[in-house]
Amino acid sequence: MKHKTLIASGLILAMVIVGTAILYVSTPLSNARISIRVAGSDLISVEADEERRLVVDGSAALTIDSDAGNIVIAPGQSDEIVIQAHKKAWGSDQADAEDRLALMKLDITQTGNAIHIRFDETSRYYLFGSTTSGRIDLDIRVPVTTTLDASTHNGDLNLSGSHGDAKLHTGFGEIEATDVNGDLIADSQNGQINAHNVQAGALIDLSSAFGDISIRDSTTVDVKTNSRNGQSTLSGVQASGNVTLESEFGGLVFEHSHGATLTASTRNGAIELRDLTIEHALYAESQFGKVTLERASSASYDLHTRNGPIDVVGALGAGPHMVETDFGGIHLTLPGNSALTLDLQTGFGRIRSALPVLVTETLDNTHWRGTINGGGTSLTAHTRNGDIVLDTQE
Predict the structure, then answer these.
(1) Secondary structure in 3-state letters for the chain
(2) 140, 320, 337, 375: which sits with the fewest CB atoms below 10 Å from its CB?
(3) In Å, what is the CA distance from 40 to each residue of 92, 100, 103, 122, 207?
(4) pLDDT tens by residue, 259-301
(5) Is the dihedral of CA 146, 74, 89, 135 positive or negative?
(6) CA distances from 167 to 62, 164, 180, 252, 364 (A)
(7) Model pLDDT for residues 185-243, shown as the tens digit of each residue
């Protein structure tokens, strides 16, 4: 039995070695090493700095592809790009760390005004033990009109003061964009995205798989946000086109802003819309969450939630307007001079109104059809389970 155990252990070890060898062979030799570590981790770090200066003539196009490291981009001189690179490598001892630092290369190529910066982390495969990846943090100064396409697999991205279109991506990290004059497209797989004072010619498009999204004091034609898991907050956004806000698990806040149309939808979270001017249609839907609309000027609105109340405060546009929830009450606070044609219905609840309603048709105690102040804007409010209340706005 003892011999069988030894044979089995030997076979397992041989399979691990063969499998690692296959992985090693399939990886370019210039980008991989294999080591055997019985125990322990990378505890020793070494660092080094590097600077590169590239001469450009006018507007430049900068592309960055990095495996790991923070990236900071800000305006500099009009005729050059200055790259400050801070390298950090880890190893099991001083010699191992310095060896790994020497392998960390920043590949920079230039074709005219097009610059490509690339950092590929050298791969090491251990049969036993653990390893810590190296990283290169980049601080880059560019001509103000540089267009940008920057990506890091692991690190934060910070862009400020640019006057060119920008695309930003990080796998694990936060994105900050401030004082940007140009279109902005940014996405993070795991991290929040903040944009402030972005003056886009056509589009602001931000998405995060896990993280909050914020846009403040910005101007664009169209704006889009999509957070799979996190809250999106937009304040002081002036959009001449369409505003589209989406979330799977997180709330949506849109306030003190303008848009031609608004579509806000979340599967799980509250929707808060305040102090808005929407020229045409406003649509808001939550699968599970409260919907609040306060002081919004819109030609028409369509508000839905499957599970949650709906609160509306303020005057209504030309209409028609629809307010609908499956499980929750509906509370409408309207100016006393509102001229409305009503269709109010609840499955289980009561209908109450502080406004003088002329009921033209009562199908039962839970379904009113009628007018306020002689009729006018069409307002439909339906709930399967909850009260419908009309109050007067003071």
Answers:
(1) CHHHHHHHHHHHHHHHHHHHHHHHHHCCHHHEEEECCCCCCCCEEEEEEEEEEEECCCCCEEEEEECCCCEEEEECCCCEEEEEEEEEEEECCHHHHHHHHHHCCEEEEEECCEEEEEECCCEEEECCCCCCCCEEEEEEEECCCCEEEEEEEECCEEEECCCCCEEEEEEECCEEEEEEECCEEEEECCCCEEEEEEECCCEEEEEECCCCEEEEEEEECEEEEEEEECCEEEEEEEECCEEEEEEEECCEEEEEEEECEEEEEEEECCEEEEEEEEEEEEEEEEEECCEEEEEEEEEEEEEEEEECCEEEECCCCCCCEEEEEEECCEEEEEECCCCEEEEEEEEECCEEECCCEEEEEEEECCEEEEEECCCCEEEEEEEEECCEEEEEEC
(2) 337
(3) 8, 17, 22, 20, 39
(4) 999 999 999 999 999 999 999 999 999 999 999 999 999 999 9
(5) negative
(6) 10, 10, 12, 24, 58
(7) 999 999 999 999 999 999 999 999 999 999 999 999 999 999 999 999 999 999 999 99
pTM over 0.70, yes/no: yes
Please state the φ and ψ torsions of residue 55, each to the nearest 5 degrees.
-85, 130
Contact 312, 389 (CB under 8 A): no
Q: Are 240 and 261 in contact (CB under 8 A)?
A: no
